[in-house]
Amino acid sequence: MHWAAHGHTAAELIYQRADSGQPNMGITNYPGNRLLKRDVEIAKNYLNEDELNILNRMVTAYLEMAELQALNRVPMTMENWIERLEQFLTMTGRELLTHAGAISHEAAMQKARAEFEAFRLRQLEEPTVAEKDFIEAEKELKRMESGGKSHPRESASHATKDQSNP
């Protein structure tokens, strides 16, 4: 289905888009709020909004067709399902995958894991939100101690009071 949705196999997609230099490694969709190693091994996680929408609609439509077959109690072999999938993709104007793709699954997994390790190491070097907040608080304290401007919100409220008492 990946090939029909965006013209790449799942392995090709992962290999092409896994990039430790990009925000979230180039991943656009993942569960939770923290990128995990398992997330970088799932091709669907790299799809943009349009690609994901197309893939989801194709899968939903195909599963609806399969459910109709089951409700009608039509016996189906794996060979029948492959034939139906090809018919479905042809009917919807999608290209059929007729080769193994340019990238192996193992090559894609190796690249994704290596990129994730580089991404993880870079994340460890970056300050956490708490550390960033602490640094900001430290700067603010130094400004206050040196008689510099107070917090921007306080400055704005003082300016309003000064303007109201001419």
Structure overview:
This is Virulence protein RhuM family protein. It comes from Candidatus Kentrum sp. DK. Residues 136-166 are annotated as: Disordered. With 166 residues, the protein is mostly helical. The chain has two domains: 2-126, no CATH class; 129-166, no CATH class. It contains seven helices and no strands. Helix 2 (10-17) runs parallel beside helix 5 (105-125). The longest helix has 23 residues, at 49-71. The termini are far apart.
- CA radius of gyration: 27 Å
Q: Estimate what percentage of residues fall within beta strands.
A: under 5%
Shape type: elongated
Please outline the major beta sheet: none
Proportion of residues in helical segments: 55-70%
Q: Distance N terminus to C terminus?
A: 71 Å
Order of helical and strand elements: HHHHHHH
Query: Oligomeric form of this entry?
Result: single chain
Helical segment count: 7
The total number of structural domains is 2
Query: What class would the helix/strand composition place it in?
Result: mainly alpha
The low-confidence runs, each spanning 5 or more residues with pLDDT under 50, are 155-162
Average of the residue pLDDT scores = 88
- Tally of strands: 0
In short:
By secondary structure, the protein is mainly α. Helix content is 61%, strand content 0%.
Comma- or semicolon-separated keywords:
166 residues; Virulence protein RhuM family protein
Can you lay out the helices and strands and say which pair or pack?
Blueprint: H1 2-6, H2 10-17, H3 49-71, H4 78-91, H5 105-125, H6 129-145, H7 152-164
